[in-house]
Amino acid sequence: MSEQQAKLSKSEAKTYRVQGFTCANCAAKFENNVKSLPGVQDAKVNFGASKITVWGTTTIEELEKAGAFENLKVREDKEKAVKREPFWKQKENIKVYISAVLLVISWFLGKQYGEEHIFATIGYAAAILIGGYSLFIKGFKNLVRLNFDMNTLMTVAILGAAAIGEWGEGATVVILFAISEALERYSMDKARQSIESLMDIAPKEALIRRGNEEMMVPVDDIRSLRALFHG
Predict the structure, then answer these.
(1) pLDDT in tens, 128-139
(2) Which of 25, 103, 132, 168 gives a 20 to 30 Å CA spacing to 116?
(3) pLDDT-derived band of residue 231, with 50, 70 and 90 as boundaries?
(4) Which residues form the HMA domain (predicted)?
(5) What's the number of domains the chain is made of?
(6) For residue range 176-199, what is the model confidence (pLDDT) as tens digits?
(7) The domain containing residue 212 runs over which residues?
């Protein structure tokens, strides 16, 4: 392929909206996964706007497969977002409620019968497993790959607490971490909804003046026009 053909091919960019980012590291991992897809020449994630621009050819199914580690959902840039359930109804938060209830029950049993009582230990263990399931899956996968992130470190810390018999502390750490992730998802979703609302009311066309000539062009075409005028 000639240099000119390569530039032309790389200029064929398409932007998608991404739902489900929980951290900047996850966005970077998704970007790298997309770059490795067949037919993709380059990809760039805009974490703040929750978008990805892809140079090359791919499908939404392939993009979602690249983001399966975080259960990311991808849609066309112009496609309206599916209205999400209220924060307290979202199914990913239900496990936090269950774990919190188990923690309180186990704490009460520990006060009544002693921290070493079998029922208290079982309750704490159940709270750890339910509240930290997704955390452990990510943590173990990253540990195998020697990729140490927050999920890996939290997994090691919780397993260490369980190993020395501090089940209550381990369950508390799991629930606090799960609550922090839930609040982070909520705040990020609200911020992105605000950004999307601003983008929806932004002008779709711009007035371009070159010398004595004026023209109305789509905002998305301004960058390509600048490249054309500047050679």
Answers:
(1) 999 888 888 888
(2) 132
(3) very low
(4) 12-75
(5) 3
(6) 988 888 887 777 777 777 777 776
(7) 203-231
